[in-house]
Amino acid sequence: MKKILILGANGGIGRNLVDYFFERRAEYDIELLTADLESCRFIENRSQYYHVDIRKKEDFEVLPKNIYCVIDLATTMPARMVGFDPQKYIDTNISGTCNLLEYCRVNNVNRVLFAQTFGDILKKTESNPILLPDMTPDLDYNDTKSFYIATMCTAVDCVKYYHSIYNMRTFIFRLPTIYSWHNKVYCENGVITKQAWKILIDQAEKGEDIHVWGDPNRAKDMVYVKDLCQEFYRACFVERDYGFYNIGTGVGIKLLDQIKGIIEVFGGEKKSQILFSPEKPNAPQYIMNIDNARAELGYEPQYDYISMLHDMKKEREINKFE
Are 47 and 152 in contact (CB under 8 A)? Predict the structure, then answer.
């Protein structure tokens, strides 16, 4: 039996990972363990839950010692922070990661999977939207998220250190925006707000006019959480010692096509009219290169943009996480 521990299991991505691994537990005889600052019925019905604050080294003492794999999603991020408290980033993303790595080292955990933000290389996309897994970080310090990103880069360096010095099997993933239906609080620049894509869905459902800001041809990789789950799952069992991968589909969807898709899937009888506002700021553009994930993990995305929207709509209706 392989014990797999998901840290940060009660987040939007974490709950989906719990669901994905639970449904496939028989394939590798998985015993699923979860940890977070708080739980929910969905998690506790599918795993053995532990209350763990990774900032406190002593909290790891409640965990079993014979863990096969640890998946670390337990980070402090701007999307969940009201205001700005830099110490929280340091305490969780750096000190907490070090506490986790020590737990893994002492207990001979077979492998660690770590989720990194793609914000460390996003600046490069203005010259070329294709992002490669082996790109070196190049932070944009005019970005209000750059302090958070810096702490995540330090955490990645710590993970790499433990791999190099202690031969800890390590798999690091760069995450762009990951799409999933959830009702978690979302913040921009420290203020609670509604995600732009949810606003577009509201407008489509009401048949309101939708404005395309900036260049309508800028494209980005629209990654569904269930494809992320597949890539993580494959990394848990692959016979390799190390990997640094992008989470993505390898395909860019133009902003105009994103909006057309939302109208197609979520629109009612009255269809929204698309208006253009070229004077507004451009949307981000990026495409995640996934060649090495395909070659080394056997990963192949299962959701294109439209099928993702249909599945998100279904997930909203069944509301299984609440």
Answer: no
Count of residues for the chain? 322
Residue 154 lies in a domain: yes
Asked which of 63-67, 161-165, 186-190 is least confident by mean pLDDT, the reply is 186-190
- From the list 315, 41, 71, 78, the residue with the least C-alpha distance to 180 is 315
**Would you say the C-alpha torsion 5, 9, 15, 17 has a positive or negative sign?**
negative
**In 83-239, at which residue ranges do the beta strands (DSSP E only) sit?**
111-117, 130-131, 169-175, 178-179, 187-188, 191-192, 210-213, 219-220, 223-224
User: What residues have CB less than 8 Å from 170, skipping those under 6 apart?
Assistant: 111, 112, 114, 159, 160, 162, 163, 241, 242, 243
pLDDT value at residue 3:
98
Per-residue pLDDT, averaged over 99-122, amounts to: 98
Specify if 106 maps to a domain: yes
In-domain check, residue 77: yes
Region 157-164: mean pLDDT is: 98
pLDDT of residue 182: 85
- Enter the pTM of the model: 0.96
Q: For the chain, percent helix, then strand, then coil, each to nearest 5?
A: 40, 20, 40
pLDDT at 31: 97
295 lies in some domain: yes
- Which of 60, 53, 15 has its CA nearest to residue 36? 53
For residues 259 and 204, give the distance between their C-alpha atoms in angstroms, rounded to a whole number.
9
Total of domains in the chain? 1
Average pLDDT for the chain: 96
Structure tokens at 205: 């459902």
> Taking Cα atoms as reference points, which of 250, 213, 216, 214 lies closest to residue 231?
250
Can you tell me the mean pLDDT for 235-244? 98
Q: What are phi and psi of 295, to 5 degrees?
A: -70, -40
Residue 131 belongs to domain spanning: 2-180+221-250+285-302
Q: What is the CATH number of the domain that holds 16?
A: 3.40.50.720
